[in-house]
TrEMBL record, chains A, B, C, D:
Taxonomic path: Bacteria, Bacillati, Bacillota, Bacilli, Bacillales
UniProt keyword Transferase, yes or no: no
Family matches, as InterPro entries: Catechol_2-3_dOase, Glyas_Bleomycin-R_OHBP_Dase, Glyas_Fos-R_dOase_dom, GlyoxalaseI/FosfomycinResist, VOC_core, XylE-like_N
Keywords tagged on the record: Aromatic hydrocarbons catabolism, Dioxygenase, Metal-binding, Oxidoreductase, Repeat
Organism: Hydrogenibacillus schlegelii (Bacillus schlegelii)
Assembly information from the UniProt record: Homotetramer.
Protein name as catalogued: Catechol 2,3-dioxygenase
Pfam family of the protein (one): Glyoxalase
Domain VOC per the UniProt entry, residue ranges: 7-121, 148-268
Length: 308, 308, 308, 308
């Protein structure tokens, strides 16, 4: 047996203008376009070695088409498939190549309706650094120069069902949750992880199949300032930031891609382990959990209003 | 002859609750209270050596009572007094001790009605570091731990008159200005300096005698994050930030003291010299000049609405 | 089945002067002493929730007495025990309480002679932050304020044997290795991980049972400057730094505790996954791998000379 | 009257290989070459608006040929000339164009033998940013991307004579000095300023006409890490760093240009004013004053050994 689900491997997101999306993700975010078809563009960050972590799919509305989590071994995949079926999920096998450059895997829907895929292999491309005696960073990064994707946050009509599904069927662990009262264990929203980051996926209340945002990792706080400057230069609409999250302790800018998908550049946070006690946020303190600095601002209420 | 006006020496600000103000400036901002009377509290930052840089004066409304700029020599003071009179200002001499711990000086009003004082001496207290073999920072700083005040921004019904006054009578230099059109030389707003920072004082349109904010210096960008965290912990109302200024290139959080005086924690910016060509901002790009990240946000319009 | 080995749980280190060691780890490093006996002191960082991550043991010479890695579940522990025995290790069970505040577990020696323990439970103490609506950092941190331990680096006469042992018996993964030539797969030294950090343990050539250093995590680069300042104020002997590692891309200061144990404050580095291709460093470029800035300096040769 | 000497305007430095020097200052340091002759290259940083701040002069040995300080007005220049002559200096007038792109001025030697020039005008080139609605930083910076020069440090057989000269004839102010004993006022070394930085020029004991280093400003601490990485990539020999200075509180890397001139990248430090009390360092604590982190290291003794 291996390590199970290792990470958020890819996000397939709908975009309404493929060329505008390409310009944004390549020229502003600094990703590398590793492939392109008439209806899709494949992108990776400079510190990612698999073929892609984001797929832009031409569509008539923005939003999340599906997400893929990379699993360590085929034994893990088989075990997870078994557990999904036991849990009552409707699981489909997909074959190698059905997803461009991706090996075989399984597909299913979360209780919230979101399509999730598990897979073990993706064509190897390599980081933008050599594997032999590498310098600490590559030359010629463009714009924000985002090294990798980090997590995504989805909306669900009944978050608890999806949280339970992820934890029980797929061994996700919970780092933080929002509760009505301090002694409640019913998650109104939850942050879940498989890696040692505070979240690989989070679920908040909202419509089923909804995407609140997916996030890029940045290596440190100063990189947020650079990102904000780059966004301003390129007239990228900033939603909120620079802000501190109470939840995860991270630091952030939220912004929108040209199709209206909310994205985040995220840094900071603690190291999370499966035995870490869950941090709770009560609803009355939630504004501080979301935007620690500006928790008194009325515009925070609007933050959860826009999803795709 | 000496160096003329060296810096913004003190800000005398009205506060409606002296004890609440003390708690804020001492326990949140980390200033040292060097003296106290029934109606006033005197404060200095850890990296300041004069007796005070802020005076909190008990009053029934917030706002700026007056500001003091420190002059290098008494010859300079006499020369500046002469120039003020030549310029048509109504100048009053004040004697040593009339301002607590401050030597003799001159007092006058800017065309905008603000009271300004020039002085040469203030009682020496010393930094929070020893003068002999000092470590780079003092132990035991509280809260934000602001090292010093940096600048203030006032409002004027006719900014140009006050800008002219400061430049012509007092040898202030202009770093940046807002103009209607690129070829205009009429300042709608202006940033002026005597030190090598991009602004010791700035003037924007608004009511006469108005205070938009006075600012504390922080040594680097990360200190803004710490300040934001401290503000949140103490429920200090944040107005805007963390943001980048286009004007001055600085980085900022605006917030309010308990009486409603807007304050700023500011870092960054370039080194300014008297021969530096003035940077111009046209009105159509002004939002970016004020808040570079969030220049598309509607709430920027409200930013100049609140003054004291 | 759970997640196997989760992290480096504790380092038991010999110190020649217990009180001097306490002062250093508490007053300089900012750890909390959670317990004390006549011959040992137990310490944790502010962001750790288990009872201790460092044990200082009174001894007549410095060095590493043993290390403990925390395992997710008792099923994992049993499975790892089985694998260790299959691999030919001599494994001893220890009962709850045999290690102060630690549950039952297994003990064995690495091929390099170092004593390693695996355990599932340690008494819970909690972070220095509340679990309910926590602020992002605790008040009143002392000195360096190290949040947690990060990794350790041991020496072995035949590193490859210990590397194989850790990878094959305990499922450690390799992030980076030193090789003679680019096409060699024989590790002269290796960096191994179980968490998503570039190393939980590393092995370099040297005497068996030797300790090169154990490291504290710091949250960002600026914290290294603060650490350096604190070390200087307390006359802590700095070995090297501030430096950049080529290997792991991290940033560092090496220094010695009062008994002569080398410690490190470490930040940065990438996220590591089990499917990450191994980075290789050839011996001719190793100086850059160790100290990227000062790779031309002769004093780098001396760096591996001192171990305990 | 104007503001007197405003800043270190230019450093004319000897280089033994003009093309190697050009590559270093342009491709590693990121300066712009604004002009070139057979025997000289003129360079400016991206945040400088005058034609050049560094002149590389072909020579058979490294070192400082001369330095130029920019004066605010011609009245100031005349006044300074008069004071120099009163002080006993041998002053020569040079005409416009005698120094390429520089207006008329005066030339003299410091008591230490170094050639200094004062001038009022240099051809305007402009920053790498527009004067109208500028972004906070320019695109396409190369290597270190140094924005400007900051200061220089020279050696003198009798430092006090040169310190007195600079302070009495040219109105430099002292921020810090090295003394034998706490109550001594005889400067063994001194840091002097005309701007509000802790030093525009410093003088330490050594041979007359000697150059210890000249320094580039970097905007913040993280930029030192980037500089160190760039130096390593380009095999620039680092002398010392990353280090903290006790003196000035700045942070630093020292390194050598291809001809063996020591350079520094410097950031941090406090704001200095003419009325600031002088900080004293006693000889027994000087190592901490120079390199605060590694003050116990023997290699600090060697630091003052190499000058050009």
């Amino acid at each position: 047996m291996g390590e199970g689900i290792m990470r958020l491997g890819y996000v397939v997101t709908r975009v309404t203008d493929l060329e505008a999306a390409r310009k944004h993700y390549v020229e502003v975010m600094g990703m590398e376009a590793t492939d392109r078809t008439d209806s899709a563009i494949y992108l990776k960050g400079w510190d990612e070695y698999d073929h892609h972590s984001i797929v832009l799919k031409k569509a008539d509305r923005p939003g999340l088409e599906k997400m893929g989590f990379k699993v360590h071994t085929y034994d893990d995949l088989a075990e997870l498939e078994k557990r999904l079926i036991q849990y009552g999920a409707s699981v489909t096998r997909f074959s190698k190549g059905e997803n461009h450059k991706v090996g075989e895997g399984v597909r299913f829907r979360l209780p919230s309706g979101h399509v999730m895929e598990l897979y073990v292999e993706m064509e190897y491309v390599g980081k933008a650094l050599p594997q032999l005696n590498p310098p600490p960073w590559p030359e010629g990064l463009i714009g924000v120069g985002a090294p990798r994707i980090d997590h995504l946050l989805i909306t669900a009509e009944r978050p608890q069902e999806t949280v339970d599904f992820l934890m029980k069927a797929l061994n996700f662990y919970m780092s933080e949750m929002v509760v009505e009262k301090p002694d409640s264990d019913v998650p109104i929203a939850a942050w879940l992880f498989r890696s040692n980051t505070p979240h690989d996926i989070a679920i908040i209340p909202g419509k089923d199949e909804g995407l609140h945002h997916f996030a890029f990792w940045l290596d440190e706080f100063n990189d947020l300032r650079k990102a904000g400057d780059v966004f301003s230069k390129h007239d990228v609409p900033i939603d909120v930031g620079i802000e501190r999250h109470g939840i995860t302790r991270g630091q952030t800018i939220y912004y929108f891609d040209p199709s209206g998908n909310r994205n985040e550049v995220f840094t900071g946070g603690y190291i999370a382990y499966p035995d870490m006690p869950v941090v709770k946020w009560t609803v009355d303190q939630l504004a501080r959990g979301i935007f620690y600095f500006n928790h008194r601002q009325e515009w925070i209420e609007g933050f959860t209003g826009v999803t795709t």
